[in-house]
From TrEMBL:
Keywords of this entry: Transcription, Transcription regulation
CDD domains, alphabetized: GATase1_AraC_1
Cross-referenced Gene3D superfamilies: 3.40.50.880, Homeodomain-like (1.10.10.60)
Domain HTH araC/xylS-type: 233-331
Pfam families: DJ-1_PfpI (PF01965), HTH_18 (PF12833)
UniProt entry tagged with the keyword Transcription: yes
Lineage: Bacteria, Pseudomonadati, Pseudomonadota, Alphaproteobacteria, Hyphomicrobiales
Protein name: AraC family transcriptional regulator
GO molecular function: DNA-binding transcription factor activity; sequence-specific DNA binding
Record-annotated membrane-spanning stretches: none
UniProt KW Transcription regulation keyword: yes
Length: 336
């Protein structure tokens, strides 16, 4: 294998606190494991770290083999802080001095180890440790609904958002309770390895990708995916991977192993839209990304997104959006 074929490595360091809530670790990291198997462009390498080599978990199972907190982190590291359970299974005793000391060690380590360029991800109540370390000062953030008041107290200058699955503010990413960590990690995978990879992982986990963390609207890339029908998923995966291709009902039917008539029927039943509507939805989503992230003119955007002309793009756009396509450029910084 040549150097050019080597995958881009993203080192992931999972901080394991005392009384770790096991699903905060297993859920998000299972997303990364499956993402590594689904594609070869990006590889997530995971290391579990903490102040203790053995940690008790929320369900009474001990977690062992935890590496020491490193003195330095790679510049492109992704640090994930799991949450803790106040009352682990069969253990309602108060936190002891050693557990408090381990929490304090994590906070102290975050203060010295999280340098510019390192992304910090908190799962559930892990946000409280990040807040205590000052990592969320002045940031938009969230946590488990039961911990919102504690987060406000620990990070008084932060903009704490409730009723959010996850919140991204620059290199700080925070998620709400427990399974929302899976949603956040799927979002990270989508950004690093593409929407098709994230969708494949979600389907493997039998998880419906919900709306973006701080976006009240469902992402167009995720619409029509709340089903487990393999024929429709094959067709949808092909379109998501390359929306600009000349997709017809017949070509997608051949690819998915169904007749054109059956594919059309299944599409309407499973997604609530026609094949053509789904293709146009993906093309408009692609056009939106190009409009927001480039200075390409409307005709060039239309052609690259799979439309025959800017007029076709505008017609499809207007069926899905209130404003014109040009409104998508308003967030692009001057000089980009």
């Amino acid at each position: 294998m040549t150097d050019a074929a080597q995958p881009f490595d993203i080192p992931v360091f999972v901080v394991v606190p005392p009384r770790v809530l096991l699903l905060d670790v297993a859920g998000p990291i299972e997303v990364l494991r499956k993402a590594n198997l689904e594609q070869h462009t990006v590889r997530f390498t995971v290391t579990y770290i903490g102040p203790s080599a053995t940690v008790g978990s929320s369900i009474g199972l001990a977690v062992t083999g935890v590496a020491a907190l490193p003195e330095r982190l790679p510049d492109n590291a992704l640090v994930v802080i799991a949450g803790s359970a106040d009352a682990p299974m069969d253990n309602n005793r108060p936190w002891d001095e050693q557990e408090r000391a381990e929490q304090a060690a994590i906070v102290a380590w975050l203060k010295r180890a999280i340098l510019p360029g390192i992304r910090l991800v908190s799962i559930c109540s892990g946000a409280l440790l990040a807040a205590e370390a000052g990592m969320l000062d002045g940031r938009d953030c969230t946590t488990h609904h039961a911990c919102i008041e504690d987060l406000v107290r620990l990070a008084p200058t932060a903009r704490v958002r409730d009723n959010r699955l996850y919140v991204e503010d620059g290199d700080r990413l925070t998620s709400a309770g427990i399974t929302a960590g899976i949603d956040l990690m799927l979002h990270i995978v989508a950004e690093a390895a593409g929407h098709a990879c994230a969708l494949a992982v979600a389907r493997y986990l039998v998880v419906y990708l919900r709306r973006g963390g701080s976006d009240p609207q469902l992402s167009p890339w995720l619409e029509g995916r709340n089903h487990i029908h393999p024929v429709i998923h094959r067709a949808q995966d092909a379109v998501v991977a390359n929306p600009s291709q000349d997709w017809s009902v017949a070509s997608l039917a051949r690819l998915s192993g169904a007749s054109p008539r059956n594919l059309s029927r299944l599409f309407n039943e499973q997604t609530g839209m026609s094949v053509t509507d789904f293709v146009n939805l993906m093309r408009v989503a692609l056009a939106r990304e190009m409009l927001a992230g480039s200075r390409l003119d409307m005709e060039a955007v239309a052609m690259r997104a799979g439309f025959g002309s800017a007029r076709q793009l505008r017609r499809a756009w207007n069926r899905l959006n209130d404003g014109p396509p040009s409104a998508a450029r308003s967030r692009l910084p001057v000089g980009s």
